[in-house]
Amino acid sequence: MFGELIDLILKSKIITSSNIYKRLIDMLNTQDFKNSLNEASVNKDYSCIRCYKCLEEIIKTFYKKDDDFLFAVYQYALSKSFSEAVTLELDEEDFAIFETYLLLLKVFSKFQKLSNDGSFQSRYPLFFLGLDEERNLEDPSEYKKFVEAFEGDYVYEMMKLNQEVIGYNTLDHVCGVHYLSLYIARQAKTKTYL
Question: Which domain holds residue 68?
């Protein structure tokens, strides 16, 4: 889990170009932080709250506002896809810590999808097409753009935060519909039509 997070952080221009980057890496590279990730994994607790708890000391170091951090990071994720829906003024100086949280939540979500933890996100994981399926699409470039936007704009993480922070259950609905539609499409593809 730790290695995946560091790989994602190193690819983030917002984080690597920020004034918190070097200190952030030092704070992440501690045994306490690694132990908290391991504990979350052992307990199969991939919630937004648990993600926050893993990063709590780091967040408190860099996020100095009185706002609810999870609501603020939700608003940041929301701003990437639905900027007109944002109700909180966001400061660019906070973007690196928001990105750090969202990247860890992305790693948490990946582990949850594979964990068989009993959640809807684990029973009906939202995985995109495999490479063979992607190559067989009529226009793979369009699909790739969609996946890049979905991943880059933290859409999954936004829905997960929306569920835990706001109380709407969009993520479970999307996971179920996605799973069912891919299941039906794969079945239809195996049938021969005259």
Answer: 2-190
